[in-house]
Amino acid sequence: MWLSALLLGAFLLSGPVRCSDGSASTAITCFTRGLDLRKGTEDVLCPANCPLWQFYVFGDGVYASLSSVCGAAIHSGVITNTGGAVRVQTLPGQENYPAVNANGIQSQVLSRWASSFSVTAGTKSTALEAVGRSVSTARPSTGKRPKKTLDKKAGNKDCKADIAFLIDGSYNIGQRRFNLQKNFVGKVAVMLGIGTEGPHVGVVQASEHPKIEFYLKNFTATKEVLFAIKELGFRGGNSNTGKALKYTAQKFFSLENGARKGIPKIIVVFLDGWPSDDLEEAGIVAREFGVNVFIVSVAKPTTEELGMVQDIGFVDKAVCRNNGFFSYQMPTWFGTTKYVKPLVQKLCSHEQMLCSKTCYNSVNIGFLIDGSSSIGESNFRLVLEFVSNVAKAFEISDIGSKVAAVQFTYDQRTEFGFTDFVSKDKVLSAIRGIHYMSGGTATGDAISFTTRNVFGPVKDGPNKNFLIVLTDGQSYDDVRGPAAAAQKAGKLCILTSSGS
């Protein structure tokens, strides 16, 4: 139950609306996304007068699940901006979602996403006479003033995030474009809806040496943040963005500086031209600290300047994931207002913050499996099935959760360690390939062995360590001593399952 509860997102959907043919459709907002819907096939009602320029759509015909459902329906021609009924069909993810301009909406390109959806005409019903409200930042462009106004002090509660704007203060950008950059950051801050219970922001300036201009704890009101941004001075120097990114990931997001527990940590890196140092190592450090890195690049390097770039693929190596979501391109610092909304929507898509530390992506789970004669071959297979089902719930990767398995009788055998497999598919395959040993039961020795040989190399890493002991019989040796020693040495949580 606890796993299910943690996986649920907080999305606002109004109750079912009875249509003229007797079927029930769900009334949604203009900005409800495909991933907000829970059914494989669902009938929804889109409101009228949705602001087309604010839609966030990826793909054409088949849309990435983070796309607006109503935006996709208008883009595909299923409905118009007068609203209407739409049937949404959940589909598998795709390797590429193209950018296509259709029916007044410009969809965006996205490479690789976990799930998709398609839209068709739904059941007949009158369009709702409502103006959509974004779950994050959108304000109605037409229609009646919403009854519930945003509590300015509390801020946008649907976009809780701790955000560091890492601005470019190098000679690359210069004084004039530096001021334009400040204006853009200010517009983003306004649209985020900063408040005590909403987003908190701070600013770090990257130049020869990074400088934290202000922390998350310093200002929790938009007016204060705008004044602080306006007062920022241009520093100059080389664009040591990698150095600044690493410094920000390590120093900025502490509890003393205003970071909040359980809130996504985000660094938005503004880069004018190219970095003069290495971003890859800094990106790795940021991921290890659970920080989601976005790169906003402006004015790509010219042909002459490319020779000075250490790594042309620096953006892909610095961001949280190389899937197109965490990188953002602007051609110039002039006329940037239209780029504010799409960036803010990304920053408020918290379920897409794949580098945030959660119980699913920041743990080392070691399974200590009883392979004694009292288990039997058939029950041993059931145990492996249980282990597989637990492993499936976690985000296993080189920077995420990791799994290891040890089988024991009187002896111990490491089936695979934490660094042997860094993808879920390979871990599951390795679990299926474990062969039954058979023999006596020495659980205490097995705990000591696993603590020393499996958890020893990773005990000082960023992940929390958990040892799950699966045994059905009484051990022939002492268990309490090794278990207490394991908890003291490696801060392990020992969970024992017993029974036939």
Features:
500 residues; alpha/beta; 6-stranded mixed sheet; globular
Would you kindly provide a written description of the structure presented here, covering whatever features stand out?
By secondary structure, the protein is of the alpha/beta class. The chain is built from twelve helices and 22 strands. A seven-stranded mixed beta sheet has the order 1-2-3-6-11-5-4, covered by helices on one side. Strands 14-13-12-15-16-17 form a six-stranded mixed beta sheet, with helices on both faces. Helix 12 links the parallel strand 21 (464-470) and strand 22. Mean pLDDT is 82; it is low at 1-22 and 125-149.
Task: Briefly characterize the structure.
With 500 residues, this protein is an alpha/beta fold.
Topology:
Elements: H1 2-7, E1 16-18, E2 24-27, E3 41-46, E4 59-60, E5 62-64, H2 69-76, E6 84-92, E7 96-97, E8 101-102, E9 105-106, E10 110-111, E11 115-121, E12 162-168, H3 174-192, E13 200-206, E14 211-214, H4 222-230, H5 241-251, E15 265-272, H6 280-288, E16 291-298, H7 314-318, E17 327-330, H8 337-347, E18 363-370, H9 377-392, E19 402-408, E20 412-416, H10 424-432, H11 443-455, E21 464-470, H12 480-490, E22 493-497
Parallel strand pairs: 2-3, 12-13, 12-15, 15-16, 16-17, 18-19, 18-21, 21-22
Antiparallel strand pairs: 1-2, 3-6, 4-5, 5-11, 6-11, 7-10, 8-9, 13-14, 19-20
Helix pairs in contact: 3-4, 3-8, 5-6, 9-10, 11-12
